[in-house]
Design a protein that fits this description.
It is found in: Endoplasmic reticulum membrane; Microsome membrane. Belongs to the cytochrome P450 family. Keywords: Endoplasmic reticulum, Heme, Iron, Membrane, Metal-binding, Microsome, Monooxygenase, Oxidoreductase, Signal. The chain is an alpha+beta fold. The chain has one domain: Orthogonal Bundle (Cytochrome p450), CATH 1.10.630. Helix content is 48%, strand content 8%. It has a four-stranded mixed beta sheet with strand order 1-2-7-4. Helix 2 runs antiparallel to helix 3 and helix 14 crosses helix 17. The structure holds protoporphyrin IX containing FE. The site of protoporphyrin IX containing FE has 24 residues, from helix 14 and helix 19.
């Protein structure tokens, strides 16, 4: 009988049971969704605080227990500071020098320089850019003759997200809602689209065999689109500096912060339950920041990348839940109408954020459909998980090994949320939200490395649905699929067969003059 090491035994067991490696293969070949693959891993070792498995030969620790998540990824986050790198440092400097890929002290410095750009008062400053795009969005549909316009939500939300994020981060007014062939949009889609066997393999491969990718200098992203965005941003910075152009966007905030220290913040309301707060224990930059043109370009391109697919996914799932749950939608329409009336027909930042039911709906949609199914950390300093229960042994986590936070699986675990597949905004009412188990809600990740721009994402969602519901009702049409099935063809969360719904005018009077 051959003797094998515990590690080999574990890999063999996984292959034999088809549990993890088998489910990775099913995901690569489009037979299983990425969310299902992670759920398989989550339930592989039931009733444990964490599971371990191998990404081929790399050990991965999947953390499931809320207290352990808090301990490891918040309190002891200095042991788990970086993401597993999947973009080779030798690749394009613009794409590599972004916050998501940065590591250790370099990341910490950049994060503290960028955090002031995303405060609530900066969101208020940028609110006018968001409303400009929301207004364009509704006018696009109000111009149509039909009373009910059939629309594939994911496509139109992607175009909307493209327009907003380009407007806010690049300072470029793009109109992909009206022009689907817009160059910025097509390049953004190319950059973020993870469909097709080659792209899926290339992307999953960067997680599964990162060392090989590093050696071969393979980037999972298309080079032509990276070049397109680099030159767009550089030209934009040059033109502004030459002509002293000022507009309320991120390039402007960063260029300005190079000359003047960040000003004391004016008080502004926060954007809701889901806002990342753990990530703000940083010493914020109170002096002028030292940031080069290249670094500004790298950051704003990351913002575009990070805020395009995520936001469009979130908006599509909110639209789906409103269309599938008419009683929720009617209650929200009531709140929208009341809010519009209370602010005399001219919506304000404060009024958007005063809507409690809107916050409950958006929070629950992000619980049921967290668009980022999984986030990861790399162990940067050896760590020991002490045994807590009699049947546990303490577990050593080696430097360089991966830790995964299975967001989707935690949000759908009935231990955390009873009837987890039910869309129930009441979970987040004033009364009930106090009973949500801490560290079981992660649409924007966790700890100091959590999403930098949760406020922006939430503000975009609330403002767009305010505009939509002022003018339309979202109704099922022939092609609508309820219940929604998660697509097996994409790594990012999407609906099989698309998100088809109708936008039904609420009144004939809302026809725009222009
Ligand atoms: C609904 C919209 C969004 C969702 C669901 C989302 C979610 C996430 C998640 C899960 C992470 C990883 C956090 C972790 O590992 O703990 C992340 C990181 C990040 N997000 Fe977002 N995000 C959204 C919108 C945005 C937008 C609009 C921007 C920029 C304008 C943005 C910028 C970033 C950046 C820069 C990071 C990396 C932070 C770091 O490593 O320090 N995100 N986001």
């Amino acid at each position: 009988k051959l003797k094998s090491s515990p590690k080999t035994e574990k890999i063999l067991k996984q292959i034999v049971h088809g549990s993890c490696i088998g489910s990775i293969w099913k995901t690569v070949t489009g037979k299983k969704s990425f969310a299902d693959m992670i759920q398989d891993a989550y339930y592989m070792e039931p009733n444990t605080r964490y599971s371990t498995f191998y990404q081929f030969f790399n050990p991965v620790l999947l953390v499931k227990d809320p207290d352990l998540i808090k301990q490891m990824l918040v309190k002891d986050s200095d042991h788990f500071m970086n993401h597993q790198h999947f973009i080779p440092p030798e690749g394009d400097p613009i794409f590599y020098k972004n916050l998501f890929s940065m590591e250790n002290q370099e990341w910490r410095d950049m994060r503290s320089r960028l955090t002031p750009v995303f405060t609530s008062s900066k969101m208020k400053y940028m609110f006018s850019l968001i409303t400009q795009n929301c207004d364009k969005f509704v006018k696009h549909f109000l111009r149509k003759e039909e009373t009910v316009v059939t629309v594939e939500m994911r496509e139109i939300m992607a175009r909307f997200s493209n327009d907003v994020i380009s407007n806010i981060v690049f300072g470029v007014e793009v109109d992909a809602v009206n022009n689907p062939n817009d160059e910025v949009y097509l390049n953004g889609k190319n950059l973020t689209n993870l469909t097709g066997l080659t792209r899926v393999l290339k992307f999953l491969g960067s997680f599964l065999v990162p060392k090989l990718y590093k050696i071969l200098k393979i980037s999972p992203f298309p080079e032509a689109s990276i070049k397109f965005f680099s030159s767009l941003v550089q030209t934009n910075i040059d033109v502004r500096q030459k002509n002293n152009i000022v507009r309320p966007d991120m390039i402007n905030i960063l260029l300005d912060a190079r000359k003047n220290a960040f000003q004391p913040e004016e008080a502004a309301p926060d954007t809701g339950f889901a806002v990342m707060r753990d990530s703000e224990n940083f010493k914020l930059s109170k002096t002028k920041i030292d940031i080069t043109d290249l670094e500004i370009a790298a950051q704003v391109i990351t913002f575009f990348f990070a805020g395009f697919e995520t936001v469009s996914g979130m908006l599509s799932f909110i639209a789906y839940e409103l269309g599938a749950n008419p009683e929720v939608q009617q209650r929200l329409i009531g709140e929208v109408d009341h809010t519009l009336e209370a602010c005399g027909g001219q919506i304000t930042y404060e009024a958007i954020l005063s809507m409690k039911y809107m916050d409950m709906v958006v929070t629950e949609a992000l619980r049921k459909w967290p668009v980022i199914i999984l986030t990861d950390r790399m162990c940067t300093k050896p760590y020991t998980i002490e045994a807590k229960y009699p049947d546990e042994k303490s577990r050593h986590v080696k430097e360089g090994s991966s830790v995964w936070l299975p967001v989707f699986a935690i949000h759908r675990d009935p231990e955390n949320y009873p009837e987890p597949d039910k869309f129930d905004p009441e979970r987040f009412s004033d009364e009930n939200k106090r009973t949500v188990k801490p560290y079981t809600y992660f649409p924007f990740g966790v700890g100091p490395r959590g999403c930098l721009a949760s406020r922006l994402g939430l503000l975009e969602a609330k403002t767009l649905f305010f505009y939509i519901l002022t003018n339309f009702e979202i109704v099922p049409v022939e092609k609508t699929q309820i219940p929604l099935k998660i697509s097996k063809k994409r790594i990012t969360m999407n609906a099989e067969g698309g998100f088809w719904f109708g936008l039904k005018r609420r009144t004939e009077l809302s026809t725009p003059s222009a």
